[in-house]
Amino acid sequence: MKVLYTSLECYPLAKVGGLGDVVGSLPKYLNELGCNTEVILPYYDNDKVHQLVCEDVFSETINLGIHHYDFTIKKVISSEFGFQIYLVYQKELLFRPNVYSYDDDTERFIAFQLAILIWLRNQEIKPDVIHCHDHHTGLIPFLVSQVPAFQELIDIPTVLTIHNAQYQGWFSYDKLDYIPQFDLHNIGLLDWDQCINPLATAIKCAWRVTTVSPSYMEELQSQANGLEGLLHHEKDKCVGILNGIDHTIWNTETDPMMIKNYGDKNIVSGRKANKKWLCDEFGLDVEKPLFAFIGRLVYEKGADLLPDICLETLRNLDVNILILGSGDHQVENRLRSVKEEFPDSYNTYIGYDEKLSHIIYAGADFLLMPSRVEPCGLNQMYALRYGLIPIVRRIGGLKDTIIDIGDDGFGICHDQVNVQDVYNSIKRGVEFYENQKYYREKQKEIVKIDHSWNNSASKYIELYKSLK
Ligand SMILES: Nc1ncnc2c1ncn2[C@@H]1O[C@H](COP(=O)(O)OP(=O)(O)O[C@H]2O[C@H](CO)[C@@H](O)[C@H](O)[C@H]2O)[C@@H](O)[C@H]1O
């Protein structure tokens, strides 16, 4: 069986968040189980992509209304990723340093999708399944099923995975002419609330829809940024499959990004060395428990509350806090300003730094995840694997993966997202940490929990097989 993943992100070539991690790892595990999975993403203007050796395998032109854009499909010549990667090189729209947040994202995403389908239409051996990730490739299920120009592809089953239903890719009908000709009687498939909504379109047109945890699938029925009714209507083709993590990359014994590697036997000294580096680098006190946050500084992650959570905590408890993230500029500035009041126990790195994130997982004592919405969350799984205790809000995938220490589990959970509840959880964390024997026992327990893709990859294969 041959499956093609269409995605804007794929670690290590392009990663903004968890989507990159999933698309960069699940295909590896699927291939090991005999499901030939390939990934196609844009050819970005970044160092990782520039270093690749590629072969041009196809060239054509995309029409977006009155505009014409030449593109080339490049096949990556390398086996280091564990799966075959193809890249769409399109100079004007896709060859950019960043993945998102350009004014012409709509044009970019449509061009990417059209290029993929034009290429597939011309391929002799077609995939058995096209698996689309998030709204950026959400028009593919519509294009394949409704556009006569792609009728050679009409029998290929399409799957959509919703990594985050907050973002839907809405655009106005002014841009309808970017979509190749189709029967206008079916225009309703593109529509949601008088806009073209690629996520809604994919939910309507894909053969199957998955989300990245079972709890998130349930939550979407009542909270899906306007798509609740649609998801409820389509619930029979929807399923929640918990994400996994890549145990080959997230491996404390071999991770090249850490300061000191460690295994079961030297976990305490190994983690101490990573913590010491963090504390030296960020001017913190290595003797105090270190609470960290890693992630996009957006409302869904509860990032707007972080400055007040930090202030409340640092005014009352003897701890360190370290924040790694970027996003909302107002939140970034407020987080920077916390340092003025607490220069010796608080610091922040505003930006994206993959290596630093690995050292934080390897050296901090607790990881904060006060998410308002968390479709799955990978950070808590990385935390468990590396031996730091997650403090999470019970929502989505966090609810599916973390059990509170009070219920004989290994994490700290709270039900609401507000400063007081998160502060109370941090306080519980401090008490937990003070009992070093118990803390170390739990640490040894959590690093053994297996959240690798081994558990979920076979569920995807079952799903693909059911589409035949
Ligand atoms: N500033 C920074 N520097 C370095 N690394 C950083 C970073 N900010 C984030 N990261 C890394 O990016 C990843 C974020 O993963 P999440 O699952 O939390 O994210 P996200 O919300 O992007 O993904 C969405 O998709 C994923 C995958 O399906 C779901 O798990 C999730 O719930 C959903 O919101 C982690 O690997 C984290 O370490």
Major sheet: order of its strands? 3-4-5-2-1-6-7-10-11
The CATH level-2 architecture of the largest domain is identified as 3-Layer(aba) Sandwich
Report low-confidence residues grouped into runs of 5 or more.
none
Number of domains: 2
Query: What is the mean pLDDT?
Result: 97
Percent helix range: 25-40%
- Considering the protein shown, what is the CATH homologous superfamily of the largest domain? Glycogen Phosphorylase B
CATH top level of the largest domain is: Alpha Beta
Overall strand count:
17
* C-alpha end-to-end distance: 10 Å
Assembly context of the chains: single chain
Largest sheet: 9 strands, mixed
The backbone outline, from C-alpha atoms, is globular
Radius of gyration: 23 Å
* CATH topology assignment of the largest domain: Rossmann fold
User: What structural class should be given to the helix and strand makeup?
Assistant: alpha/beta
How many alpha or pi helices? 17
Small-molecule components bound: adenosine-5'-diphosphate-glucose
Strand content: 15-25%
